[in-house]
Amino acid sequence: MVNAAVAKARELGVSETVAILDDGGNLKAVSRMDGAPIPTIEIAQNKAYTALFGVSTQEFFDFIHGDPSLLAGIPTLARVAAWGGGFPIKVDGEIVGAIGLSGAPTVQNDIDCARAALALVPDAA
């Protein structure tokens, strides 16, 4: 999955950090491409952690952004990242882990690279 995300990033001409967590939030793999800013190491992991809630981080943002109290409070929690680039990894409907990407100039680049990795998992959401 890391290789697929990095290949998509290269195709797009961007630098990414890719993080994969297991279902308990433990880091299983991380790769920072040359040129990806240092903070993206933590951000990618936080996006993956947030995706363990069961939805993509973009869907999570869409859920909280209409409620000022949620928008003000939830993103202050440790390991929570409420913007696109994180996805749960599901097998047979069960969350088995999550992937998070950070580093590209746009959130859409992060999303596209994550989706390239998820394409390797037949039942991924």
Task: Tell me about this structure.
This protein has 5 helices and 4 strands. With 125 residues, it is an alpha+beta fold. It has one domain: Beta-Lactamase (2-Layer Sandwich). The protein has a 4-stranded antiparallel beta sheet with strand order 2-1-4-3. α1 crosses α5. The protein is globular, with a radius of gyration of 13 Å. The two termini are 14 Å apart.
Structure characteristics:
125 residues, alpha+beta, four-stranded antiparallel β-sheet, 5 helices
Describe the protein's topology.
Layout: H1 2-12, E1 17-22, E2 27-32, H2 40-51, H3 57-64, H4 68-73, E3 86-91, E4 94-102, H5 107-118
Antiparallel strand pairs: 1-2, 1-4, 3-4
Helix pairs in contact: 1-5
CATH class: Alpha Beta
Q: N-to-C terminal Cα separation, in Å? A: 14 Å
**The CATH topology:** Beta-Lactamase
Domain count: the total is: 1
Instruction: State the helicity in percent bands.
Output: 25-40%
Oligomeric form: single chain
What's the short version?
The chain contains 5 helices and 4 strands. The chain is an alpha+beta fold and 125 residues long.
